[in-house]
Amino acid sequence: MSDLEVGKIIPAKIGRSPIIVSKLPSGEIRAVGGRCPHQGADLGHGCISGHTESESVNTLEYCGQGETLRCPWHGFEFSLLDGRPIVEGTTHLPMKLRFFDVQIEGSDVVVTV
Predict the structure, then answer these.
(1) Distance between CA atoms of 59 and 88, rounded to whole angstroms?
(2) pLDDT, tens digit only, all 113 positions of the chain
(3) How far apart are CA 38 and CA 35, in angstroms?
(4) Could you report how far apart the first and last alpha carbons of the chain are, in Å?
(5) What is the pTM of this model?
C-alpha cells in the first residue's frame, strides 16, 4: 500500500489478466481492467490526470485531477469514479472501464473478481 500515490499507476495481474491499481484524491483505492475498452491498449502505460470541461465558448476549466485515466494509444479518457468515457458517444460501441472490488488488509491491497 505504501507504493500507492494519487495519480500513480501500479500494474498488476489477476491470474493472467492485467489490471491497474491507483489511489484517488479521496484516498479510495481503485482497481480496473488493464486493457482499454476501445482497442485493448495496455493501460499500464497510460497516465492519470484531470480533464477539461466547458460551459461556454472560449472557456475551459481543468477539473478532476487524479480521477481521469488516459489511454496511451488514442488518448481516450475514462473517469476513475464511474468508469465512463469523459467524452461519450465517440465510438459506436459502448465503452466502460471494468472495476474490481478492493479490500485493504493491513498494508496489503487485495483485489477480487
Answers:
(1) 20
(2) 667 899 999 999 999 999 999 999 999 999 999 999 988 999 999 999 999 888 899 999 999 899 999 999 999 999 999 999 988 776 677 789 999 999 999 989 999 98
(3) 9
(4) 19
(5) 0.88
- What is the distance between the alpha carbons of residues 68 and 81, in angstroms, rounded to a whole number? 8
DSSP letter for each residue of the chain = -TT--BT--EEEEETTEEEEEEE-TTS-EEEEESB-TTT--BGGGSEEEEEEE-SSTT--EEEEEEEEEE-TTT--EEETTT--BSSTTSSSS---PPEEEEEEETTEEEEE-
Dihedral sign for Cα atoms in the order 34, 40, 44, 49: negative
Distance of alpha carbon 96 from the chain centroid: 10
